[in-house]
Protein: Cell division ATP-binding protein FtsE
Organism: Rubrivivax gelatinosus
Amino acid sequence: MPVQDLSAAPPLIRLDGLSKRFRLPGGEVFDAVHEVSLQVRRGDVFGIVGASGAGKSTLLRLINLLETPDRGRVEVDGRVLTELGKRELRLARQSIGMIFQQFNLLQNATVFDNIAFPLRLHGRRSRAEVAERVAECLAIVGLTDKRDSHPAQLSGGQKQRVAIARALAPHPSVLLCDEPTSALDADTTRQVLRTLADINARLGVTIVIVTHELEVVRSLCRHVAVVERGAVAEQFALSEHGVRRRTSLGRALQRLVDHPPELDAEGDEAVAEEPEPAHA
Ligand SMILES: Nc1ncnc2c1ncn2[C@@H]1O[C@H](COP(=O)(O)OP(=O)(O)OP(=O)(O)O)[C@@H](O)[C@H]1O
């Protein structure tokens, strides 16, 4: 279980009074996220859990303004994203990587070109610099030998690790993960979680992860927010044991924390270790 005092670290992400309302085809409105205020500390691994439709993905997508909030303020790494123009926002987004359940890779491009894509998009790097950064990212996710493969030739876990490498390429300070292991089997899930834990520990990249899998939260996260009907119903540190939680999901997670499953034969745990100050 990750035990780490991040209380002295300044928040990397500050959400203040965030709301997002969708208009449904029938004309009714639906409050997907309502008045959410939340802080995520630099270097943290922060989980967002909740029932289906609770607003987890919408909340995650509000952090990089993939969804535009109706109200509220989003600050990431000292920049108030909700006050930026389009061009400034595009630049600011380079410090926010994102990965998805379905990987979202370019099918007709090689692994190399998938990872190089965000670097080429934002220009200003020579071919040699792009190649060097792609090689570094491939090494971080342990896929150096897959450089010239196409996504169709990879397993699900390998595809997700390519997506992680692509997200890391522009040196983000935070990685947003939307159900990154939901399409994967248990063994592959463990591999991907180990990669994420390693990125947090070795590179100091802050991770925010939406998942419906409580075991993923237990094994990877240090803090968690439980979202119910678009609001944060409770949040807590996973290092605390034997505490009575307010929500049923919080209680289920606490039971898992208090009585973790047996480790496998290799003692495998995804758990993030103390991050170094270095950045990706
Ligand atoms: N573009 C949209 N237009 C209308 N309604 C939407 C839109 N996006 C999301 N919603 C609705 O907002 C609510 C929250 O969706 P969201 O995807 O954030 O939930 P979630 O907690 O991530 O759910 P799940 O675990 O099922 O993915 C849902 O009821 C969803 O149908």
Summary: Residues 270-280 have pLDDT under 50 and may be disordered.
